[in-house]
Amino acid sequence: MAQNIPELYGSLVFNDKVMRSKLPKDMYKALKKTIESGTHLELDVANSVAVAMKEWATENGATHYTHWFQPMTNVTAEKHDSFISPTGDGQVIMDFSGKELVKGEPDASSFPSGGLRATCAARGYTVWDVTSPAFIREGAIGAVLCIPTVFCSYTGETLDKKAPLLRSMEAVSKEAMRIVKLFDPETEATKVTASVGPEQEYFLISKDSFDARKDLKFTGRTLFGAPAPKGQELEDQYFGAIKENVGSFMKDLNRELWKLGITATTQHNEVAPGQHEMAPIYMAANIAVDNNLLAMETLNKVAERHGLECLLHEKPFAGVNGSGKHNNWSLSTNTGINLLDPGKTPNKNRQFLLVLACIMKAVDRHSDLLRQSASDVGNDHRLGANEAPPAIISIYLGDQLGDVVNQIIEKGSAESCIKGEELNLGISTVPVVTKDATDRNRTSPFAFTGNKFEFRMVGSMDSIAMPNITLNAIVAEAFDEAANELEGSADFEKACDEYIAKTMREHQRIVFNGNGYSDEWVEEAAKRGLPNLKSMVDATEALVSDKSIALFSKYGIMDKVELESRAEILYDTYAKVINIEALTMIDMASKDILPSVMKYTTELAASINEVVSAGADASVQKETLDEITVYLKEAKTALTTLKADQAEAEKGCVKCTAEFYRDVIKADMAALRTPVDILETLVDSEYWPMPTYGELLFEA
Ligand code: ADP
Ligand code: MG
Predict the structure, then answer these.
(1) Which atom of ligand 1 is nearest to the CA of 268?
(2) What are phi and psi of 200, to 5 degrees?
(3) Between 112 and 625, whose confidence is greater?
(4) pLDDT confidence of residue 300
(5) Exposed, middle or buried by CB within 10 Å (0-12, 13-18, 19+), for 544?
(6) Angle of the 465-486 helix axis to the 162-183 helix axis, nearest 10
(7) CA of 279 to the centre of ligand 2 (A)
(8) CB of 279 closer than 6 A to ligand 1?
(9) What was the pLDDT predicted at 120?
(10) Nearest to 479 by CA among 643, 657, 341, 351
(11) What burial class does residue 18 get, using C-beta atoms within 10 Å of its C-beta: 0-12 exposed, 13-18 middle, 19+ buried?
């Protein structure tokens, strides 16, 4: 194995270097042209690439290949085929054709399709995504060549998250180029790429503790658990020294990610005990999505090797912070200009201000869609719970840029510019440094951070495909409208300034620079008319509104049928996930927790007799027994209710079922958890049937 990092990096990726060395020159050029400018790929090129890929993959130990795709779940799917091909004389050769590279045909009927399945055959196709590099995945199963693909039904409806993402990237590129050309008609730029850098939070706990908890195994989160005596209150975990076993995990993780061409760069401890973060260097959105899915998979795999379990769930533990994924997003031309870079004088940077105005408009108009794109079942526990942004979308611009925008809103133009202020600590041995133009705001869902927006609402377990599809689409629309208005204006500068001021004025309600966790903001946002969609079920509606259908259809990203099918999948998933949680609670309470508590009460009751017959005072034992009995009864009643409601949860319409889970089952679950968590604090720890929060959070 390669020892130095540059050599190690990308060693399992069919990257440019490999392509250049393995492909005939003309084939290499043709492939590059398709990747860079989207030209049609001819079959002879595909054949040539297939030969090169197979050669490279088999040299690296691969025996199988797979079309790797992203169905409408949060994980990837694959079906392996070997390269083996019989030669007729009892021998085999390793073979792989252009046809096999370009198209696969998995049975689509067992993937979520949200009603699309009823109208079309089970046949589905996976089609090679030339722009995302193929890679080799190593594991106990051997080495497998993974070819990133899009997944669609026989009739062409998309069944995955990749196809709409690629379409949204094309849409935003096309419309952003119109903006670029307003300012520089002779520009050499030919496309604009949405780039994304996702920061991934996760928990590590010991594998033994994980295995001893049914809730973690079946649902990824704890459904019961009294708080540990110590939580995150001392703030000693955030950026704290990394423990040796976690350090060795991170070291191993980095190597595995680097091999896959994932630029893991940042690593640190997060706020909660046992919580950490990993961030790669940003990439084109489609590659960032692939890489993030692979990174989540790799986190799980490497953890296992270290006797650990990685929890990617948004809220594994009550009472300590959950995990999110900060989706850093920006737009850059292929000539290297970041459209979100304000430069030193943003007040004079018309192009930046126009882009900013368009983003304000896009986010304000489609805040419901953006909120929807960041919703999954687990994230409902975080958003608006004072540990993550509220469920209300707003934009944070910071003081200086906020000031520029305010001046434009009030006067039509801005005098002030961003000041590169100095920070002088007055210690001769400590250098004077320049401050960033914006402070950090941890409470904003959508914060401007220098030359990109950080969409901070996304859940840790969720694919980042939908947030980026949404961002690209809503911004493409705003660019489109701005270009329509400004293209061919007689006095462009004047028209542009007016358009910027008007747009900022119309959408200023979306800007909020204060504390997003405060109750005042919830009130203020309501006054401003900003939506506050509290749960995933509420947010799903946004996907199928007329506004959403018009937006996604206009740019050919998803049509009405595809959107409706996605909404249906989301309602269904919501109900299924909560149902698994409810069944797990019922199982744990009936078979493990209540029996353990009863054993303890039996023991306690026997001890009372013994103590009394020894002539001593048994009042403490009696009091404890009485107290436990109160909560035991309460738990039993709650369990009975949960069981009864769960049995009646299926309502015959996916949305109604999801609403029932949200309103009734979740409340039943909370009612069962409360007495059980109190019992945990009363019962002798020897009797408690599973590891406690203290063990889970502090013993990894
Ligand atoms: P923070 O200080 O917010 O925790 P990190 O350094 O952990 O930031 O992560 C910031 C992420 O933003 C990284 O993935 C980084 O590559 C990414 N990023 C930086 N510039 C851009 C950009 N122009 N477009 C998209 N992502 C970017
Ligand atoms: Mg970070």
Answers:
(1) 7
(2) -110, 120
(3) 625
(4) 97
(5) middle
(6) 30
(7) 7
(8) yes
(9) 47
(10) 351
(11) buried
Q: How far is CA 257 from CA 149, 293, 309, in A?
A: 20, 11, 18
Alpha carbon of 424 to ligand 2 centroid (Å): 25
Condensed to tens digits (0 to 9), the pLDDT of residues 299-311 reads: 999 999 999 999 9
Q: How far is the CA of 434 from the centre of ligand 1 (A)?
A: 19
> Ligand 1: distance of its center to the CA of 267 in Å?
13
Sequence-ordered list of residues with C-beta below 8 angstroms from that of 101, at least 6 positions apart, any chain: 46, 49, 50, 53, 128, 147
Structure tokens at 297: 């998979």
Indicate whether residue 453 lines ligand 1 (CB < 6 A).
no
Q: Which atom of ligand 1 is nearest to the CA of 341?
A: 23
Distance (Å) from CA 442 to ligand 1 centroid: 15
Distance 458 CA to ligand 1 centre (A): 15
Residue pair 132/289 in contact by the 8 Å Cβ criterion: no
Which ligand 1 atom lies nearest to the CA of residue 197?
14
Give 117's pLDDT tier (boundaries 50, 70, 90): low
Confirm or reject: Cβ of 197 under 6 Å from ligand 1: yes
The rounded distance, in Å, linking the Cα atoms of 196 and 202 is 19
Q: Is the CB of 282 under 6 A from ligand 1?
A: yes
CB 111 within 8 A of CB 79: no
pLDDT value at 118 more than 60? no
Torsion on CA atoms 438, 441, 444, 445, rounded to nearest 10: 80
Residue-wise pLDDT tens digits, 617-632:
999 999 999 999 999 9
Which H or E run contains 679?
A: helix 666-682
**What per-residue confidence (pLDDT) applies to 235?**
77
Whole-model pTM: value is 0.94
Non-local CB neighbours of 252 within 8 Å, separated by 6+ positions: 302, 305, 306
Q: What distance in Å separates the CA atoms of residue 106 and residue 68, rounded to the nearest whole number?
A: 11
- pLDDT tens digits, one per residue of 34-87: 998 888 889 999 999 999 999 999 999 999 999 999 988 878 888 889 999 999
User: What is the DSSP code (8-state) at residue 226?
Assistant: P
Question: Minimal CA–CA distance to 608: which of 596, 593, 625, 591?
Answer: 625
Looking at residue 437, what is its pLDDT?
Answer: 62
Q: Which residues contact 346 (CB under 8 A, 6 or more apart)?
A: 352, 353, 401, 404, 417, 418
Question: Is 266 a pocket residue for ligand 1 (Cβ < 6 Å)?
Answer: yes
Q: Is 281 near ligand 1, meaning CB less than 6 Å away?
A: yes
Residues, CB within 5 angstroms of ligand 2 (ion): 199
- Between the two ends of the chain, the Cα-to-Cα distance in Å is 29
**Would you say the CB of residue 248 lies under 6 angstroms from ligand 1?**
no
Q: Is residue 340 within 8 Å of 330, Cβ to Cβ?
A: yes
Pairing of strands 453-455, 275-280: unpaired
The two tokens of residue 312 are 């990617």
Asked whether residue 116 carries a pLDDT value surpassing 80, the answer given is no
Average pLDDT, rounded, for the chain: 92
Average pLDDT rounded to a whole number, residues 324-341: 97
CA of 217 to the centre of ligand 2 (A): 28
Q: In sequence order, what DSSP letters do the residues of 600-629 get, joined into one string?
A: HHHHHHHHHHHHHHTT---HHHHHHHHHHH
